């Protein structure tokens, strides 16, 4: 399904912006206009929160393996490129960021915070097995046989609980920063996080199937977070059930579940992000 494909390729948390990939070879410190010999690592020590979008202000900015000017250059980022802070940092003059598939450090002096109205949060979460019959369910999905980690687990339900908790912890950590800078957040997650969004052929799945098609732990975090941010809006896009539907959880929280057949992904709708 489209949502699943996007999740595999997306960063864990992205504020909306243009992510430009540079084809340039890394430059040496002597050639780098953003790192002069007299640069002070603590020239600008403003802390940046994880999940914050940053725009490169230098003509070219080195992405370094470690937080110092003598560290290996992993790539060069062009002026105007929007990158994402992946770890609360900046107090020492360096910020840890995601650039394409690479993570590294850039000088805080040559990036500025991007103020966005909308943000995107994503996690490739599996189900959490906490709704419906749970361990009493008579259903066994192919996932339990085809996915190696699940097949080799000594306790399938405990493994699925842990995966659901991992997704919940991700949102617990990153959503506050996204909501602090954005009026609307779009969340992409593999499995529906609410019973009301677990569609099957126009109806909500029954209790035997619900444990295998929902990530309840993530849903609890999303609902609790949006109850605390009544002035913000959240749209959740998910899949996994292969049947589509729309659910309104709160006045400011909606879920769109995508439909698709195996090996036949299709576009469900278009979300306009300005």
Describe what you observe in this structure.
By secondary structure, the protein is α+β, with helices and mostly antiparallel strands. The chain is 20% helix and 26% strand. The protein contains 5 helices and 15 strands. It has helices spanning 2-9, 143-146, 148-151, 156-181, 216-227; strands at 13-15, 53-56, 60-64, 73-78, 82-87, 94-99, 102-107, 111-113, 118-123, 184-189, 199-200, 203-204, 233-238, 245-250, 253-257. A 6-stranded mixed beta sheet has the order 1-9-10-13-15-14. α4 (156-181) packs parallel to α5. The longest helix is centred in the middle third of the chain and has 26 residues, at 156-181. Residues 1-33 and 36-44 have low confidence and may be disordered.
Which helices and strands appear, and what pairs or packs with what?
Elements: H1 2-9, E1 13-15, E2 53-56, E3 60-64, E4 73-78, E5 82-87, E6 94-99, E7 102-107, E8 111-113, E9 118-123, H2 143-146, H3 148-151, H4 156-181, E10 184-189, E11 199-200, E12 203-204, H5 216-227, E13 233-238, E14 245-250, E15 253-257
Parallel strand pairs: 9-10, 10-13, 13-15
Antiparallel strand pairs: 1-9, 2-5, 2-8, 3-4, 5-6, 6-7, 11-12, 14-15
Helix pairs in contact: 4-5
């Amino acid at each position: 399904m489209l949502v699943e494909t996007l999740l595999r390729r997306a960063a864990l948390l992205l504020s909306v912006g243009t992510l430009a990939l540079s084809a340039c070879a890394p430059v040496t410190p002597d050639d780098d206009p953003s790192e002069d010999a007299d640069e002070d690592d603590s020239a600008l020590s403003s802390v940046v929160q994880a999940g914050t979008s940053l725009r490169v202000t230098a003509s070219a900015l080195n992405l370094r393996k470690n937080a110092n000017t003598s560290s290996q250059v992993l790539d060069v980022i062009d002026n105007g490129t929007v990158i994402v802070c992946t770890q609360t940092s900046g107090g020492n003059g360096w910020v840890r960021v995601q650039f394409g598939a690479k993570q590294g450090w850039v000088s805080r002096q040559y990036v500025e915070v991007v103020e966005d109205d909308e943000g995107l949060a994503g996690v490739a979460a599996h189900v959490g097995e906490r709704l419906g019959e749970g361990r009493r369910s008579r259903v066994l999905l192919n996932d339990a046989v085809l996915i190696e980690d699940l097949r080799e687990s000594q306790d399938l339900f405990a493994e699925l609980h842990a995966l659901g908790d991992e997704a919940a912890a991700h949102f617990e950590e990153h959503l506050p920063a996204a909501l602090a800078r954005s009026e609307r957040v779009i969340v992409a997650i593999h499995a529906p996080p609410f019973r009301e969004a677990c569609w099957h052929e126009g109806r909500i799945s029954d209790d035997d199937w619900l444990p295998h098609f929902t990530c309840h732990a993530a849903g609890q975090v999303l609902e609790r977070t949006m109850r605390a941010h009544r002035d913000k809006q959240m749209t959740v896009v998910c899949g996994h059930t292969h049947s589509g539907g729309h659910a309104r959880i709160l006045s400011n929280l909606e879920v769109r579940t995508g439909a698709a057949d195996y090996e036949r992904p299709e576009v469900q709708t278009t979300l306009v992000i300005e």
